[in-house]
TrEMBL record:
GO terms for cellular component: cytoplasm. GO terms for biological process: NAD+ biosynthetic process. It comes from the Eukaryota. This is NAD(+) synthase (glutamine-hydrolyzing). Keywords: ATP-binding, Ligase, NAD, Nucleotide-binding.
């Protein structure tokens, strides 16, 4: 590939910064290759590797541990013939042109305490590039933007930031948002979510603005005292021309206010772009979403509808690749016929299916599912699974002469769980059955199959409030790392922005699995079953993963954060509990986290959107078999600390009395 780039005359006259894996002295390096007019000027290896969270870069690459040092790299024959030399410089150096100096850093290096751009700027480098593979999470752009702007606000300079965009075949979505920053101000910004394969962002910058910004005497004197200097590779190539300087109509690009999407927009746009990339790459005929009438499956279906809106907008913009993909995937109206509206595309790409039970399912959930399907245009299937359920239950009766009963009918907890799991697993099998045959049954040319989408949110996955191999088992889960509160905000936003009034019914409904019979005195509730609210689950998840707190440390934190005696701030919506109630909540969470952690090993791959996702594949590496927490030392420490707290509170009350 590098050979083709060097030989391509259309790239000449442009200073190229290209990413490439390089084998040097039997070690693999992640490198930037700086090229000009078909020649390699420098190979700059990455110095700081990403080795936490979703990344294991050190499994594949070695960091360059010698700042500001270089050595010779022996070019392979196919490159040396083009270069006209057998060796080029390899290491930490910069490029010097007649009017400025240019350096490169890579992705993770921006996030490190001693980022290379700091020393480059102190050594007079004025333009710095960063070619990044920074994945998306909710609200991450704020952090990324702050780091990039601060990179040049402290030292001045021009920062060119390019980021990967799209699904790269994993759980991650890369959200692009290329930017050009001058002295801490954004002067150009690319799209954060787009179906475009290539996007070009340009700006006109004034190097004298950088020099004026850096003109503080104290800063200049301190920079000059630095003993270690970068080796500069000289090139006569000029980044500007006299013609541009005399063009009075062409001045420096003015700063802009960077575009930052709301969380609700991020859910819609990230999920939509990711699902389209996934669908077109997989070669499948569309998606199938089991609709339960609850807000989670509603959110999944709405994200698919958002995808359809994004695709239709790309078609209207003339995106050739999207048009070609739609013609290949959406074939029900004939070869080459393009749908005109998001609903029309949704009808060809999305199937929704409501799998009810006559005694367990309510009319309200069935109607909500039907209303949503009509609003977004999906091909909807409404069925009951009672016959299959009864046949499976009778297998137990006829084989071991034992008939399990629901809790409301006097059964034990184990019997109750058994009957619920039978229903849940039947729904998974039914979803895949319909996903396999529906395109053929609907006479789609070429048949094909549908990708089944899951709808378990991050809180349920963390708590283990799901049946192993039920409808949480699917091909991909677009909401698997999004919490309930963010999903509710997304649905409330989509109700107005997508003009879907039917979504209001999902917002006001009580979350329920509807796996137990409905009686006059009992309706199943998720939060009652779990013994904790979804809001509490979000807090537990953040403290466990992001703050890295175990049971005792979490109790110490929450006994203050959730104290009923605390002073309430205007934005404080945290629960108010006694220390004993906090202890019980923390113990309950860690107990169910431990006994259900095994479920994470088979969780449907989920689009990564949060830093506390329990993804067992790569992000959240934990044991899946824990000893009982009830007998653990951490629980005993909670009891001991609780006893101290309650004695102090009792003593305080006695004195006040």
């Amino acid at each position: 590939m590098l050979q083709r780039l060097l030989l391509d005359k259309s790239t000449h006259g442009i200073l190229l910064d290209v990413g490439l894996p390089i084998l040097h002295r039997n070690l693999r390096y992640n490198c930037r290759v700086i090229c000009l007019d078909g020649k390699i000027l420098l190979i700059r290896p990455k110095m700081w590797l990403a080795n936490d969270g979703n990344y294991r870069e050190m499994r594949h690459f070695t960091p360059w541990m010698r700042p500001r040092e270089t050595e010779l790299f022996h070019l392979p024959k196919i490159l040396s013939e083009i270069q006209g030399e057998t060796h080029v410089l390899f290491g930490d150096a910069v490029i010097s042109t007649p009017e400025t100096a240019f350096g490169a850093e890579t992705c993770e290096e921006l996030f490190t305490p001693r980022a290379p751009h700091i020393d480059m700027a102190l050594d007079g480098v004025e333009i710095i590039t960063n070619s990044s593979g920074s994945h998306f999470t909710l609200r991450k752009l704020d952090t990324r933007l702050q780091l990039i702007t601060e990179a040049t606000r402290k030292n001045g300079g021009i920062y060119l930031y390019a980021n990967q965009q799209g699904c790269d075949g994993e759980r991650l979505y890369f959200d692009g948002c290329a930017m050009i920053i001058v002295n801490g101000d954004v002067v150009a910004q690319g799209s954060q979510f787009s179906l475009n394969d290539v996007e070009v962002v340009t700006a006109t910058v004034d190097l004298d603005e950088v020099r004026s910004y850096r003109a503080a005497i104290s800063r200049g004197m301190q920079a000059a005292t630095s003993t270690a200097k970068y080796q500069r590779i000289q090139t006569p190539f000029e980044l500007s021309s006299e013609d541009e300087e005399s063009d009075v109509t062409r001045g420096p690009t003015l700063p802009i206010q960077p575009r930052i999407h709301s969380v609700e927009e991020e859910v819609a746009l990230c999920g939509g772009c990711y699902l389209w990339d996934y669908l077109r790459r997989s070669g499948s005929a569309g998606f199938l979403v089991p609709l339960s009438g609850g807000i989670d499956s509603c959110a999944t279906a709405t994200i698919v509808y958002s995808m359809c809106r994004i695709v239709i907008a790309a078609i209207e913009d003339g995106n050739a690749q999207v048009i070609e993909d739609v013609k290949r995937i959406a074939k029900y109206d004939g070869e080459g016929v393009l749908p005109k509206t998001p609903q029309a595309l949704c009808n060809q790409i999305l199937t929704t299916i409501y799998m009810g039970m006559k005694k367990q399912s309510s009319h309200e959930t069935r109607q909500r599912a039907k209303d949503l399907a009509e609003a977004i245009g999906s091909y909807h299937v409404n069925l009951d699974i009672d016959d299959v359920y009864e046949a499976q239950k009778n297998l137990l009766v006829n084989t071991i002469n034992f008939e399990p009963r629901f809790k409301v009918h006097g059964g034990t907890n184990q019997e109750n769980l058994t009957l619920q799991c039978i229903q849940a697993r039947i729904r998974m099998v039914t979803a895949y059955e319909f996903g396999q045959i529906l395109p053929t049954a609907r006479n789609r040319p070429g048949g094909g199959s549908l990708l089944v989408l899951g709808s378990a949110n991050v809180g349920e996955a963390l708590r283990g409030y799901l049946t192993k191999y039920d409808c949480s088992s699917a091909d991909i889960n677009p909401i698997g790392s999004i919490d309930k509160s963010d999903l509710k905000r997304f649905i409330a936003w989509a109700e107005k922005d997508f003009d879907l009034p039917c979504l209001n019914g999902f917002l006001t409904a009580v979350p329920t699995a509807e796996l137990e019979p409905i009686t006059q005195n009992y309706v199943q509730s998720d939060e009652a079953d779990m013994g904790m609210t979804y809001q509490e689950l979000t807090i537990f998840g953040r403290l466990r993963k992001i703050n890295k707190l175990g049971p005792f440390a979490m109790f110490q934190r929450l006994v203050h954060d959730w104290s009923a005696e605390r002073e309430i701030r205007p934005d404080d919506d945290a629960p108010r509990y006694t220390p004993a109630q906090v202890a019980e909540k923390v113990k309950r969470f860690y107990h169910f986290y431990a006994i259900n952690r095994h479920k994470s090993t088979v969780l449907t791959p989920a689009l990564h959107c949060n830093d506390y996702a329990p993804d067992d594949n790569r992000f959240d590496l934990r044991p899946f078999l824990y000893p009982p927490f009830w007998r653990s030392f951490s629980f005993k420490r909670i009891d001991m600390e609780l006893e101290k707290i309650e004695k102090k509170l009792a003593s305080k009350k006695a004195k006040e009395a």
